[in-house]
Amino acid sequence: MEYSKIITIEPGKMGGKPCIRGLRITVYDVLDYLAAGMTEDEILHDFPDLTREDIRACLAFAADRERKLASIPA
User: In the chain, where are the structural domains located?
Assistant: First the structure.
């Protein structure tokens, strides 16, 4: 999935953390909700500005970041 148009990083917003479409909802927040057991439907209900595509973009961003970290030689 191409997440670069959904996940944004702005130095003056949320401390430069990756956010969703410039909103004040961070990738970390969405991942934390999923890890806590919230379903996509529950997240979308609590945050009506989000879409399923936004949630998938967060997962793709995290997977890509992990892949990059795993490829750094120790």
Answer: 7-70
pTM here is 0.89
Q: Does domain 7-70 have CATH number 3.30.420.240?
A: no
User: In the structure, how many helices (H) and strands (E) does the chain have?
Assistant: 3, 2
Residue 10, C-beta contacts closer than 8 angstroms, at least 6 positions apart: 16, 19, 22
- Would you say 27 and 35 are in contact if contact means Cβ atoms under 8 Å apart? no
27 and 41 Cβ atoms separated by less than 8 Å: no
Query: pLDDT tens-digit profile of 21-44?
Result: 999 999 999 999 999 999 999 999
Helices (H), 1-74: 27-35, 40-46, 52-70
Beta bridge partners, 8, equal 19
Q: In the chain, how long is the greatest CA-to-CA distance? A: 42
